[in-house]
Structures
1.
Amino acid sequence: MGSQVNTGLSQRAVLNYALPALPLAIPTVAVYILLPTFYVEEVGMSLALVGLLLVLARVLDVISDPLIGRWLDHVQGKLFKLTFVVGGFLCVPGLWLLIHPAPSTAAISLFAGSTLLYLGWTLIQIPYITWITHLSSDSFQRTRAISYREGFSLIGLLLSACLPLLALIGFSTQAVLQSMMLVTVILGAFFLYRLLSYLPAPTRLKIAQGRWHDVKNNRLAVKLIAAWLLNGIANGIPAVLFPLYITSVLGNTPDSRGVFILIYFIAACCSLPLWLHLSRRFDKVLLWSIAMILAVCAFIPAAFLAPGDNHWFILICIITGFAFGADLSLPHAIQAEVADWDRFRFKREHTGLLFALWNGATKAALALAALLALGLLDLSGFDAQSTTPSLSLALIYALLPCVFKVVSILILWRFPLRNHHHRALIRRLSERASGSFNHAGSVSNPVPTSITNHRLQ
């Protein structure tokens, strides 16, 4: 599939692209938090069996990512759009099985439902994030569309976080899950219909299809995925330990957790327009690195807060939420630029596979973050029933993520693909497609040798 050459995107096109992110994010809290509790407390399955079945379903999900991405590199037009439809038709029965398990076959319902939901979600998510490379060749327009997409995704997360509040007015866990499914299906069907109806499907360029080993040789992609993975672990560790930190370190009640989450996500949403504006003037890799440095500087003090230091933690939530806005918008735009460079460098199509690996790295980061956070906390001898503030919890919660972010920053140090390089790449790709490619390059805006022959030793 090839990039579309148009550079401008209308507001309508941006909204049609971005709005499906909202329903895609709504099941998040339900699937990750409410569902395991539902199967243990209301269905009666053991916690160990629930955990095992969810892990097995997730393993199959991760394996499917590169296969789906590889397949997407071989399709175009109606087949590309059909992938969304197939994904949707898998998600709906998957959610239904998860929410309505038969008592005698609850384990089968959990495993089959999770597998169908994960596979369907992946069939939607990978072509969805890949589509950004075909909407526009202009880096700023891509960042703009991604910022809208991630903003709507945050709104979906906030709606997801609000769903458990239905329990306060008498809803059972199953009723909450049914409400989630109803909202997700209705909004998802409507917004995906607009996406598929009003945006042109990607068209494939007349170039050879990608090969697996070419991706390994794309050192820019390897570096970027590594930085994204480590940064994802850094973001995931506090997410896993956040409920315990609020109660065991700050000494708050569980009911106060929602306030801090709301502040964090509102700060992230509010920061998106600023990061978008800055991306027009400054290199996105530089801005992302600055955002991670800002997050590190703001998060270190969280290791030394004491019970009652809520005002300081609110300030930390605002600053780190502001930095998180850069995590949401800038790396995805950089990945799209790396996909353009990959097409220029190897003269093959790997876009779907690259974004599938990116998606897989996101899932791996969440799993590794949970494993590290909970494993280290268990080794430290943490006692959730203790009334004494836990120093080990505070250190793991605040300092360990900073280590991963610093390593991510170092990986991105002197990352050679900058805004002006990308503009040159797009022009050269256009010249190649039209048959007027000049291997000598342009004097006014060349693609430097460090990019075209890049091996990043």
Note: The longest strand covers residues 208-209.
2.
Amino acid sequence: MIKFKDFVPKRIPGTTGGFFSSGEPERYETIQDALEAANNWIVDETIQIVNVETVVLPNIWAEHEEGSEDGSLYTGSTSSHWHQFIRCWYQD
């Protein structure tokens, strides 16, 4: 059976700041962090890798979206935020 597993860079919440500061914006781990997680998973699991790809999708962290496995992602009429992640296809 063919399956896939996504390795999405984790979201790092920002801070709201205070009276004299604007706080820190949210950030994300790097694609290199996601690749390292994928490599660690491949070493730890007894699976056969079929393909590894980089996927770019819009707005996967938006509150109305379901992340990297969402079948329909809304780009809206304003700007979108595009996110890159690693997808491993494998046989179990």
Note: The chain has one domain: 2-15+25-68+80-91.
